[in-house]
Design brief:
This protein is mainly beta and 162 residues long. It is built from no helices and 10 strands.
Length: 162
């Protein structure tokens, strides 16, 4: 067997910053060293207050997939929005890979994963209190929703033009 690569950590999560003009690396904005729940971030969007919302996959069967709200200036964790409870769902997953802000400043979360009770859902979540409503139920026409868009979403920035 091939020994594990000590430099590769499949649970690591890094959010890197680059200068938009030069393309030069600036810094590590956040990582699982500063935010232990940050694992394999994929979906990243800023809200109207400048906070960064990022998807984070679970670390193991006892962990949950989640959305993290980070301070947009210093990368510190502000709040966590769990997507499912792995214990009550028998270890099945409900995760998001791409999130988007839309009408009324709400966060839209397309859910995928192995749990038939949540896979295919699209949730609309209020960022003020983290309450969510299911807009598209599981087991419907969407099997693996990924990249949402709205008529007034700027494709270059993903900003919703209110």
């Amino acid at each position: 067997p091939i020994p594990p690569d000590p430099l590769f950590d499949p649970l690591a999560g890094y959010i890197l910053r680059f200068d938009p003009r030069s393309g030069a690396f600036v810094d590590v904005f956040a990582s699982n060293a500063t935010i232990p729940d940050l694992h394999r971030p994929e979906g990243l969007v800023f809200d109207e207050d400048g906070n960064l919302w990022v998807t984070s996959f679970r670390a193991d069967a006892d962990d949950n997939d989640k959305i993290l709200q980070l301070d947009g200036t210093n990368g510190q964790l502000k709040r966590v929005l769990p997507l499912a409870d792995p214990v009550s769902q028998g270890g099945l997953r409900a995760y998001a890979q791409a999130i988007l802000f839309g009408p009324c400043g709400d966060l839209y979360i397309p859910i995928t994963g192995g749990d038939p009770t949540t896979a295919g859902e699209v949730r609309r979540c209020r960022t003020k209190d983290l309450s969510c409503k299911i807009l598209v139920p599981a087991n419907g026409t969407l099997l693996a929703p990924f990249y949402l868009g709205f008529e007034h979403t700027d494709p270059s920035t993903l900003e919703f033009d209110r």
